[in-house]
Amino acid sequence: MIRQAILLVGGRGTRMWPLTDTVPKGLLPVAGVPFIELQFRLLAEVGVEEVILAIGTSHESAWRTYAEGTTSPVVHLAVEQSKLDTAGPLVAVRDQLDDRFLVLNGDVVLEGSLGQFVEDAPDLPAVLSLVGVEDTSAYGVVVTNDLGKVERFIEKPPPGTAPTNAVNAGMYLMSRSVFDAYDEGALSFEQTVFPSLVEQGLLGGVKIDGVWLDIGTPPLYLQTHRDVAAGNSRLVNMEPAHHGIGANVAGDLDGNWNFIGPGAVVEEGARVRESIVLAGATIRSGSVVEDSIVGWNAVVENARISDTTVIGAGAVVGEGCELTAAVRIGPGSSLSARSVTFEPPS
Ligand code: GDD
Ligand code: MG
Hints:
Layout lengths: L3 E5 L20 E2 L2 E2 H10 L5 E6 L4 H9 L5 E6 L8 H5 L7 E6 L2 E3 L3 H7 L5 E7 L7 E5 L5 E6 L10 E10 L13 H11 L3 E5 L4 E3 L3 H12 L11 E3 L4 E2 L2 E3 L3 E3 L4 E2 L4 E3 L2 E2 L4 E2 L4 E3 L2 E2 L4 E2 L3 E2 L4 E2 L4 E2 L4 E2 L4 E2 L4 E2 L11
The structure holds guanosine-5'-diphosphate-alpha-D-mannose and magnesium ion (MG).
């Protein structure tokens, strides 16, 4: 059993702006469940009771409120005043670390068996979970030998140059002794710690199978909901036409899935297709919302929204507006009637 995990959630989540203006990426809801809770569900399978969240100063208060309201696992915050990169946060909290613990990147969940991973891990100070992918260019590529020892770690090799399709899945089983060699400050697992462990023959790698859930960009956030609604996740469930508590849906929900958050309203005569309408948002009669995300408490008057458009929290999209081409509307903005359109008035 492993008692402790450290989650790296220090990124600003800019690719998910405007939703991440107030809510950290790790707390964005997936089918109504904060993303981080999917990781907690996975960690509970190997007995993790304590989680240290390594955060930056942006979103500190949102994380603090969340941590205070969470009892299982017990959540502690490690707040960094300057960016410490991926391994620096571990050096900063090394006095609080158990002999053995898990480290998770905070922006992806690989739904493989953590129990199997821990069981199969070779007896080395650091062991990476690995997954096979088609396009390796956004990942750390990992070459292992027959005994599960890592022979090469290559972070984001240029397309077409990777020697294997096994990549770092962002979950590590580690010993505290790994950090004895380093001083406090910024430190990268991928650029410094892993290559050094490879040189000393101290890094292991274990392949695991499972669905990847990634909420790093608006298309991936939509894709994650599509996967969950199709029943592909074992960590979270969603009805294909999900209505949150108190949602009022009189309009049409089209396509294979829709997520309508708690207290959201889809008026009669409105149409929503394969979209996420977050808590408290209102889609007024006559509107069409397709492949898009409507933020908390936003209001869409009689308007058309499509193609991965993201509306920030509390924004108002006036009557007759047409928003498309992955446009992003800032939180609290107000677009007056017919102020954005692709057709001049006739
Ligand atoms: N606390 C803290 N401080 N966290 C950070 C910092 C920091 O300064 N910088 C990055 N992180 C967190 C991010 O929030 C993310 O959860 C994790 O560390 C990894 O950083 P990314 O910026 O998302 O890295 P990546 O996606 O390009 O690549 C990493 O993940 C891939 C798997 O998704 C690497 O570990 C790759 O090797 C790996 O394949
Ligand atoms: Mg990432």
